[in-house]
Structures are given as structure tokens and as C-alpha cells.
Hints:
Blueprint: E1 7-10, E2 14-26, E3 29-38, E4 44-48, H1 52-55, E5 58-59, H2 63-75, H3 84-97, H4 100-116, H5 121-138, H6 146-150
Antiparallel strand pairs: 1-2, 1-5, 2-3, 3-4
Helix pairs in contact: 2-4, 3-4, 3-5, 4-5
Protein name: Transcription factor YdeB
Domain CarD-like/TRCF RNAP-interacting: 1-111
Organism: Alkalihalobacillus alcalophilus ATCC 27647 = CGMCC 1.3604
Amino acid sequence: xxxxxxxxxxxxxxxxxxxxxxxxxxxxxxxxxxxxxxxxxxxxxxxxxxxxxxxxxxxxxxxxxxxxxxxxxxxxxxxxxxxxxxxxxxxxxxxxxxxxxxxxxxxxxxxxxxxxxxxxxxxxxxxxxxxxxxxxxxxxxxxxxxxxxxxxx
Length: 153
């Protein structure tokens, strides 16, 4: 269970901070909700506390995990041989997991491809969104410097 003030990741929405835990009643049934302030969209989201695992909500990674991800981001292998439609499906599946490593791989691979040739509109939008999700989490890691955040550029 998360606490007020915890930094979390909500897949397909990015990073946020739990601002409150509220009890709401719908159809005569009371349920607790996390009230999350999302950093990318600046919107507030309410997530039932008992559904966070099913939705993939997780804590923000720590600085040690970030160093591992930066290494993979800078040194990992990219496969640009598959057709773009298949690559799009694979990348979308990675983003939907909400896992930072999966998202970092999508950003890394699409940035490398973008250097070689222009991305189509769908992949360009995917890169923009995946990059925003990645940076939104990196920005909430305790002890991170602005220079480390910018290493993903």
C-alpha cells in the first residue's frame, strides 16, 4: 500500500505523486482511492487502492536502478530489422508494461532510428510519449541531478 507523498508510476500516464487517499461511495459500495497528481499532464487521477497491482501502478525506481538503465540506454543493442508495424506493436506492448527499462529501450531504439532516417508519424508520436514518461519518472528519483536527467537526451 502506498502512502501520501509517495512517487509512483501509472502505466501509460507516467509519474505522479499520491496527494491523498480518499474514500468514495459508488452504487452503495465504499472504496478507497489514491488521488494522484500526474506530472506530465498536470491532471489528477483517482485509482482504487485495491486495483493498483492489476493496473501496474508501482513505485518510482531508485538511483541505483537508474544507473543500470542509463548503461543499457547507452550501450544496449537495437533491432531495426523488423517492419515498422510489427515494431510499433512490440514497442507499444513495452510501454504498456509501465516498466522503466522497457520504456527506456523504446526511447533508445526510436532515437537511434531517428538519427538514421525520419520516423513515420506514429513512431514519432510514440517516441515523444515514451520520452515524456521516462523523463517524468527520472525527475522524481530522489538524489538525481539535473545533469543525470539530461543524459537521456
